[in-house]
Protein backbone atom coordinates (compact mmCIF):
# COMPACT_ATOMS: atom_id res chain seq x y z
CA UNK A 1 0.00 0.00 0.00
CA UNK A 2 1.21 3.46 -0.87
CA UNK A 3 0.61 4.74 2.65
CA UNK A 4 2.72 1.98 4.15
CA UNK A 5 5.64 2.80 1.87
CA UNK A 6 5.41 6.46 2.75
CA UNK A 7 5.19 5.59 6.45
CA UNK A 8 8.21 3.35 6.28
CA UNK A 9 10.43 5.83 4.51
CA UNK A 10 9.42 8.51 7.02
CA UNK A 11 10.26 6.15 9.86
CA UNK A 12 13.57 5.29 8.20
CA UNK A 13 14.53 8.95 8.10
CA UNK A 14 13.39 9.59 11.66
CA UNK A 15 15.03 6.38 12.87
CA UNK A 16 18.31 7.43 11.30
CA UNK A 17 18.08 10.91 12.78
CA UNK A 18 17.08 9.75 16.23
CA UNK A 19 19.16 6.67 16.83
CA UNK A 20 22.18 7.18 14.61
CA UNK A 21 23.37 5.37 11.51
CA UNK A 22 23.41 1.79 12.76
CA UNK A 23 19.89 1.77 14.15
CA UNK A 24 18.77 3.73 11.13
CA UNK A 25 19.94 0.95 8.83
CA UNK A 26 17.97 -1.58 10.91
CA UNK A 27 14.92 0.57 10.39
CA UNK A 28 15.67 0.72 6.67
CA UNK A 29 15.79 -3.07 6.55
CA UNK A 30 12.32 -3.12 8.08
CA UNK A 31 13.52 -4.76 11.31
CA UNK A 32 11.70 -2.26 13.50
CA UNK A 33 8.48 -0.57 12.51
CA UNK A 34 6.02 1.41 14.55
CA UNK A 35 2.69 -0.38 15.07
CA UNK A 36 -0.15 1.03 12.98
CA UNK A 37 -1.45 4.21 14.52
CA UNK A 38 1.56 4.85 16.72
CA UNK A 39 4.09 7.60 16.23
CA UNK A 40 7.82 7.38 15.93
CA UNK A 41 9.35 8.39 19.20
CA UNK A 42 12.44 8.04 21.33
CA UNK A 43 11.64 5.42 24.01
CA UNK A 44 11.69 6.98 27.48
CA UNK A 45 14.26 5.77 30.01
CA UNK A 46 12.54 2.98 32.03
CA UNK A 47 14.57 3.88 35.11
CA UNK A 48 13.36 7.47 35.36
CA UNK A 49 10.00 7.19 33.59
CA UNK A 50 7.95 6.29 36.69
CA UNK A 51 7.79 7.41 40.35
CA UNK A 52 10.67 6.39 42.60
CA UNK A 53 10.99 6.08 46.37
CA UNK A 54 10.78 7.65 48.87
CA UNK A 55 6.98 7.65 48.86
CA UNK A 56 4.64 9.43 51.28
CA UNK A 57 3.68 7.31 54.28
CA UNK A 58 0.24 5.80 53.70
CA UNK A 59 -2.03 3.02 54.90
CA UNK A 60 -5.52 1.88 53.94
CA UNK A 61 -7.90 -0.69 55.34
CA UNK A 62 -7.95 -3.96 53.32
CA UNK A 63 -8.68 -4.43 50.42
CA UNK A 64 -7.57 -0.88 49.57
CA UNK A 65 -8.50 1.42 46.72
CA UNK A 66 -6.34 2.55 43.82
CA UNK A 67 -8.09 5.93 43.98
CA UNK A 68 -6.60 6.62 47.44
CA UNK A 69 -2.97 5.89 46.57
CA UNK A 70 -0.34 8.61 46.48
CA UNK A 71 1.03 8.83 43.82
CA UNK A 72 -1.84 7.26 41.87
CA UNK A 73 -0.83 4.01 40.16
CA UNK A 74 -0.50 4.08 36.37
CA UNK A 75 -2.77 1.39 34.93
CA UNK A 76 -2.30 2.60 31.35
CA UNK A 77 -5.43 4.76 31.45
CA UNK A 78 -3.85 7.41 29.23
CA UNK A 79 -1.04 5.41 27.62
CA UNK A 80 -2.15 1.94 26.49
CA UNK A 81 -2.88 1.76 22.76
CA UNK A 82 -4.48 -1.32 21.28
CA UNK A 83 -4.03 -2.76 17.83
CA UNK A 84 -6.78 -5.37 17.57
CA UNK A 85 -4.76 -8.22 19.06
CA UNK A 86 -7.73 -9.61 21.03
CA UNK A 87 -10.56 -8.64 18.72
CA UNK A 88 -13.82 -10.33 19.74
CA UNK A 89 -12.25 -12.22 22.65
CA UNK A 90 -14.12 -12.68 25.96
CA UNK A 91 -12.11 -12.32 29.15
CA UNK A 92 -12.73 -12.81 32.86
CA UNK A 93 -10.22 -11.07 35.16
CA UNK A 94 -10.29 -11.50 38.94
CA UNK A 95 -9.04 -8.49 40.87
CA UNK A 96 -9.86 -6.48 37.75
CA UNK A 97 -10.80 -3.35 39.72
CA UNK A 98 -7.29 -2.17 40.55
CA UNK A 99 -3.59 -2.76 40.12
CA UNK A 100 -2.34 -5.36 37.68
CA UNK A 101 -5.83 -6.70 36.95
CA UNK A 102 -7.06 -3.21 36.05
CA UNK A 103 -4.10 -2.69 33.71
CA UNK A 104 -4.90 -6.02 32.00
CA UNK A 105 -8.61 -5.09 31.77
CA UNK A 106 -7.87 -1.74 30.11
CA UNK A 107 -5.39 -3.31 27.69
CA UNK A 108 -7.71 -6.21 26.81
CA UNK A 109 -10.60 -3.84 26.05
CA UNK A 110 -8.39 -1.61 23.91
CA UNK A 111 -7.20 -4.74 22.06
CA UNK A 112 -10.84 -5.50 21.24
CA UNK A 113 -11.99 -7.90 23.98
CA UNK A 114 -15.15 -7.79 26.07
CA UNK A 115 -14.17 -7.98 29.74
CA UNK A 116 -15.81 -9.23 32.94
CA UNK A 117 -14.13 -8.18 36.18
CA UNK A 118 -14.47 -9.65 39.65
CA UNK A 119 -13.67 -7.70 42.83
CA UNK A 120 -14.92 -7.29 46.39
CA UNK A 121 -18.05 -5.18 47.02
CA UNK A 122 -15.90 -2.69 49.00
CA UNK A 123 -14.05 -1.95 45.75
CA UNK A 124 -17.13 -0.88 43.78
CA UNK A 125 -15.83 2.66 43.12
CA UNK A 126 -12.53 1.37 41.65
CA UNK A 127 -14.48 -1.23 39.63
CA UNK A 128 -16.82 1.37 38.17
CA UNK A 129 -13.83 3.38 36.91
CA UNK A 130 -12.58 0.27 35.12
CA UNK A 131 -16.00 -0.54 33.68
CA UNK A 132 -16.21 3.02 32.30
CA UNK A 133 -12.75 2.64 30.68
CA UNK A 134 -13.75 -0.68 29.08
CA UNK A 135 -16.91 0.91 27.68
CA UNK A 136 -14.94 3.93 26.47
CA UNK A 137 -12.87 1.46 24.42
CA UNK A 138 -16.11 0.40 22.73
CA UNK A 139 -16.29 -2.99 24.46
CA UNK A 140 -18.71 -4.69 26.83
CA UNK A 141 -17.93 -4.42 30.55
CA UNK A 142 -19.42 -6.89 33.03
CA UNK A 143 -19.03 -6.20 36.76
CA UNK A 144 -19.28 -9.32 38.94
CA UNK A 145 -18.53 -8.46 42.59
CA UNK A 146 -18.17 -11.23 45.16
CA UNK A 147 -15.87 -12.99 47.57
CA UNK A 148 -13.56 -15.59 45.99
CA UNK A 149 -13.10 -17.45 49.28
CA UNK A 150 -16.42 -19.17 48.51
CA UNK A 151 -16.37 -22.20 46.21
CA UNK A 152 -20.01 -21.62 45.33
CA UNK A 153 -19.30 -18.02 44.33
CA UNK A 154 -16.26 -18.97 42.21
CA UNK A 155 -18.28 -21.51 40.24
CA UNK A 156 -21.12 -19.04 39.71
CA UNK A 157 -18.64 -16.32 38.72
CA UNK A 158 -17.48 -18.39 35.75
CA UNK A 159 -21.04 -19.24 34.70
CA UNK A 160 -22.14 -15.61 35.02
CA UNK A 161 -19.11 -14.33 33.10
CA UNK A 162 -19.70 -16.77 30.24
CA UNK A 163 -23.44 -15.99 30.16
CA UNK A 164 -22.91 -12.22 30.14
CA UNK A 165 -20.06 -12.29 27.62
CA UNK A 166 -21.71 -14.95 25.47
CA UNK A 167 -18.70 -17.24 25.89
CA UNK A 168 -15.31 -17.21 27.55
CA UNK A 169 -11.84 -17.67 26.05
CA UNK A 170 -9.47 -15.80 28.38
CA UNK A 171 -9.35 -16.36 32.15
CA UNK A 172 -6.96 -14.28 34.25
CA UNK A 173 -6.69 -15.58 37.82
CA UNK A 174 -5.14 -12.52 39.40
CA UNK A 175 -6.83 -11.67 42.72
CA UNK A 176 -4.77 -12.18 45.86
CA UNK A 177 -4.52 -11.70 49.59
CA UNK A 178 -1.18 -10.56 51.02
CA UNK A 179 -0.74 -9.85 54.73
CA UNK A 180 2.73 -9.04 56.01
CA UNK A 181 3.70 -10.59 59.37
CA UNK A 182 7.13 -10.48 61.04
CA UNK A 183 7.18 -14.15 62.10
CA UNK A 184 5.39 -17.49 61.75
CA UNK A 185 3.91 -17.17 65.26
CA UNK A 186 2.01 -14.04 64.19
CA UNK A 187 0.18 -15.81 61.34
CA UNK A 188 -3.27 -16.83 62.53
CA UNK A 189 -4.99 -19.87 61.11
CA UNK A 190 -7.61 -17.45 59.79
CA UNK A 191 -4.99 -15.45 57.88
CA UNK A 192 -3.36 -18.61 56.52
CA UNK A 193 -6.76 -19.88 55.42
CA UNK A 194 -7.82 -16.56 53.82
CA UNK A 195 -4.53 -16.34 51.91
CA UNK A 196 -4.72 -19.90 50.58
CA UNK A 197 -8.46 -19.63 49.83
CA UNK A 198 -8.05 -16.40 47.85
CA UNK A 199 -4.81 -17.19 46.06
CA UNK A 200 -4.89 -20.97 45.50
CA UNK A 201 -8.36 -22.45 46.11
CA UNK A 202 -10.17 -19.73 44.15
CA UNK A 203 -7.80 -20.24 41.21
CA UNK A 204 -8.54 -23.98 41.35
CA UNK A 205 -12.32 -23.50 41.68
CA UNK A 206 -12.46 -20.92 38.86
CA UNK A 207 -10.28 -22.85 36.44
CA UNK A 208 -12.08 -26.14 37.17
CA UNK A 209 -15.37 -24.45 36.31
CA UNK A 210 -13.89 -22.71 33.25
CA UNK A 211 -12.06 -25.72 31.76
CA UNK A 212 -15.08 -27.31 30.05
CA UNK A 213 -16.07 -23.94 28.55
CA UNK A 214 -12.68 -23.12 27.03
CA UNK A 215 -12.43 -23.93 23.34
CA UNK A 216 -9.14 -24.44 21.46
CA UNK A 217 -7.34 -21.10 21.17
CA UNK A 218 -8.33 -20.02 24.68
CA UNK A 219 -5.77 -18.86 27.23
CA UNK A 220 -5.42 -19.02 30.99
CA UNK A 221 -3.08 -16.62 32.78
CA UNK A 222 -2.34 -16.64 36.50
CA UNK A 223 -0.51 -13.99 38.47
CA UNK A 224 2.34 -15.54 40.44
CA UNK A 225 5.10 -13.39 41.98
CA UNK A 226 8.81 -12.98 42.42
CA UNK A 227 7.91 -14.47 45.84
CA UNK A 228 7.53 -17.87 44.17
CA UNK A 229 11.31 -17.83 43.64
CA UNK A 230 12.68 -15.36 46.17
CA UNK A 231 10.28 -15.24 49.15
CA UNK A 232 10.13 -12.14 51.35
CA UNK A 233 10.70 -13.10 54.97
CA UNK A 234 7.49 -11.34 56.09
CA UNK A 235 5.29 -13.03 53.47
CA UNK A 236 5.57 -16.69 54.49
CA UNK A 237 1.99 -17.77 53.71
CA UNK A 238 1.66 -15.52 50.66
CA UNK A 239 4.97 -16.68 49.17
CA UNK A 240 3.89 -20.31 49.63
CA UNK A 241 0.69 -19.63 47.64
CA UNK A 242 2.71 -18.02 44.86
CA UNK A 243 4.96 -21.08 44.65
CA UNK A 244 1.81 -23.20 44.45
CA UNK A 245 0.40 -21.03 41.64
CA UNK A 246 3.64 -21.26 39.68
CA UNK A 247 3.70 -25.07 39.75
CA UNK A 248 -0.10 -25.39 39.31
CA UNK A 249 0.21 -23.45 36.05
CA UNK A 250 2.95 -25.74 34.78
CA UNK A 251 0.94 -28.88 35.60
CA UNK A 252 -2.35 -27.55 34.24
CA UNK A 253 -0.60 -26.54 31.02
CA UNK A 254 0.23 -30.22 30.46
CA UNK A 255 -3.43 -31.19 30.85
CA UNK A 256 -4.79 -28.39 28.67
CA UNK A 257 -2.25 -28.55 25.83
CA UNK A 258 -4.07 -31.29 23.93
CA UNK A 259 -7.25 -29.22 24.19
CA UNK A 260 -5.50 -26.29 22.49
CA UNK A 261 -5.68 -24.16 25.64
CA UNK A 262 -2.51 -22.44 26.83
CA UNK A 263 -1.75 -21.82 30.50
CA UNK A 264 0.94 -19.36 31.62
CA UNK A 265 1.77 -17.06 34.51
CA UNK A 266 3.25 -13.63 35.09
CA UNK A 267 5.57 -13.20 38.07
CA UNK A 268 5.73 -9.52 39.02
CA UNK A 269 8.24 -7.93 41.34
CA UNK A 270 7.21 -4.99 43.55
CA UNK A 271 4.34 -3.17 41.83
CA UNK A 272 2.65 0.03 43.05
CA UNK A 273 -0.88 -1.22 43.85
CA UNK A 274 -3.39 -1.09 46.76
CA UNK A 275 -2.27 -4.57 47.86
CA UNK A 276 0.77 -2.99 49.51
CA UNK A 277 -0.64 -0.11 51.66
CA UNK A 278 -3.59 -2.29 52.78
CA UNK A 279 -1.55 -4.77 54.83
CA UNK A 280 0.83 -6.18 52.21
CA UNK A 281 3.83 -4.25 53.60
CA UNK A 282 4.64 -2.76 56.98
CA UNK A 283 3.85 0.99 56.68
CA UNK A 284 7.45 2.04 57.36
CA UNK A 285 8.72 -0.19 54.51
CA UNK A 286 6.27 1.20 51.99
CA UNK A 287 8.07 4.53 51.65
CA UNK A 288 11.08 2.62 50.27
CA UNK A 289 8.96 0.22 48.20
CA UNK A 290 10.86 -0.99 45.13
CA UNK A 291 14.19 0.55 46.19
CA UNK A 292 15.70 -2.95 46.39
CA UNK A 293 15.29 -3.64 42.66
CA UNK A 294 18.20 -2.91 40.31
CA UNK A 295 15.96 -0.19 38.80
CA UNK A 296 15.52 1.19 42.33
CA UNK A 297 11.79 1.74 41.93
CA UNK A 298 8.55 -0.26 41.96
CA UNK A 299 6.89 -1.20 38.70
CA UNK A 300 3.58 0.33 37.67
CA UNK A 301 0.66 -1.93 36.67
CA UNK A 302 0.76 -0.50 33.14
CA UNK A 303 4.22 -1.97 32.64
CA UNK A 304 2.82 -5.51 32.98
CA UNK A 305 -0.21 -5.20 30.69
CA UNK A 306 1.70 -6.11 27.50
CA UNK A 307 2.69 -9.48 29.01
CA UNK A 308 -0.96 -10.30 29.78
CA UNK A 309 -1.91 -9.29 26.24
CA UNK A 310 0.81 -11.38 24.62
CA UNK A 311 -0.01 -14.48 26.67
CA UNK A 312 -3.72 -14.15 25.84
CA UNK A 313 -3.24 -13.42 22.16
CA UNK A 314 -2.89 -15.84 19.29
CA UNK A 315 0.70 -14.64 18.78
CA UNK A 316 2.06 -16.80 21.62
CA UNK A 317 0.69 -20.07 20.23
CA UNK A 318 3.66 -22.28 21.22
CA UNK A 319 4.03 -20.78 24.69
CA UNK A 320 2.44 -22.73 27.53
CA UNK A 321 3.42 -23.79 31.04
CA UNK A 322 5.73 -20.78 31.35
CA UNK A 323 6.22 -18.02 33.88
CA UNK A 324 7.22 -14.53 32.73
CA UNK A 325 8.95 -12.24 35.18
CA UNK A 326 8.71 -8.45 35.37
CA UNK A 327 10.64 -7.40 38.44
CA UNK A 328 12.94 -4.53 37.52
CA UNK A 329 15.95 -6.83 37.48
CA UNK A 330 15.28 -8.81 40.66
CA UNK A 331 15.29 -12.61 40.75
CA UNK A 332 12.56 -14.72 39.24
CA UNK A 333 11.90 -17.12 36.44
P1 LIG B 1 -4.63 -5.13 43.95
O1 LIG B 1 -4.93 -4.91 45.38
O2 LIG B 1 -4.88 -4.02 43.02
O3 LIG B 1 -5.39 -6.40 43.40
C1 LIG B 1 -5.69 -7.53 44.19
C2 LIG B 1 -7.17 -7.76 44.06
O4 LIG B 1 -7.51 -8.99 44.70
C3 LIG B 1 -8.03 -6.73 44.74
O5 LIG B 1 -8.32 -5.65 43.88
C4 LIG B 1 -9.29 -7.51 45.09
O6 LIG B 1 -10.31 -7.25 44.16
C5 LIG B 1 -8.88 -8.95 44.92
N1 LIG B 1 -9.24 -9.77 46.08
C6 LIG B 1 -8.56 -9.93 47.24
N2 LIG B 1 -9.24 -10.74 48.05
C7 LIG B 1 -10.39 -11.09 47.40
C8 LIG B 1 -11.50 -11.92 47.72
N3 LIG B 1 -11.58 -12.58 48.89
N4 LIG B 1 -12.50 -12.01 46.83
C9 LIG B 1 -12.44 -11.37 45.64
N5 LIG B 1 -11.40 -10.58 45.27
C10 LIG B 1 -10.39 -10.46 46.15
O7 LIG B 1 -3.11 -5.58 43.91
P2 LIG B 1 -2.18 -6.16 42.74
O8 LIG B 1 -0.81 -5.98 43.24
O9 LIG B 1 -2.55 -5.64 41.42
O10 LIG B 1 -2.48 -7.72 42.79
C11 LIG B 1 -2.76 -8.47 41.65
C12 LIG B 1 -1.91 -9.72 41.62
O11 LIG B 1 -0.54 -9.36 41.51
C13 LIG B 1 -2.00 -10.57 42.88
O12 LIG B 1 -2.03 -11.94 42.51
C14 LIG B 1 -0.70 -10.28 43.59
O13 LIG B 1 -0.30 -11.35 44.43
C15 LIG B 1 0.21 -10.14 42.41
N6 LIG B 1 1.48 -9.50 42.69
C16 LIG B 1 1.52 -8.22 43.12
C17 LIG B 1 2.75 -7.66 43.41
C18 LIG B 1 2.86 -6.25 43.91
O14 LIG B 1 3.93 -5.85 44.35
N7 LIG B 1 1.78 -5.45 43.87
C19 LIG B 1 3.92 -8.40 43.23
C20 LIG B 1 3.83 -9.70 42.77
C21 LIG B 1 2.59 -10.24 42.50
MG1 LIG C 1 -8.68 -3.58 44.37
Automatic annotation (TrEMBL):
GO terms, molecular function: oxidoreductase activity, acting on CH-OH group of donors
Record carries keyword Oxidoreductase: yes
Protein name as catalogued: Uncharacterized oxidoreductase YghA
Keywords attached to this entry: Oxidoreductase
Lineage, top ranks: Bacteria, Pseudomonadati, Pseudomonadota, Alphaproteobacteria, Hyphomicrobiales
Species, as recorded: Rhodoblastus acidophilus (Rhodopseudomonas acidophila)
Listed Pro residues bias regions: 43-54
Region (Disordered): 32-58
Domain of life from the UniProt record: Bacteria
Membership in a protein family: Belongs to the short-chain dehydrogenases/reductases (SDR) family.
SUPFAM superfamilies associated with the record: NAD(P)-binding Rossmann-fold domains
